[in-house]
Specification:
mainly alpha
């Protein structure tokens, strides 16, 4: 799921159409739903990118821009364990 969110961020960064990534022959027929999901701001996989500190979505204590902009394109460190 994080890879899908990362790919969408790259698509936005490169200013490409979502149908290039989410083509009709991919994602087991769910491409249209994924496009609608991201365009509506229901960002599947983004919480993982935020946990990896690659972007920010709801955690405004993190540095950098909000998704779909990326603070890092690569994971820089292992994430901290979630608190109980």
């Amino acid at each position: 799921m994080a890879a899908i969110a990362w790919s969408y961020a790259a698509l936005v960064h490169l200013q490409l159409e979502p149908s290039i990534l989410f083509h009709e022959d991919g994602y087991q027929g769910d491409s249209a739903n994924l496009i609608e999901n991201f365009e509506a701001g229901r960002n599947v996989g983004v919480p993982l990118l935020e946990w990896y500190e690659m972007t920010r979505h709801h955690r405004h204590d993190l540095p950098g821009p909000d998704y779909p902009q990326m603070h890092h394109w690569l994971r820089m460190k292992e994430p901290e364990p979630a608190s109980p």
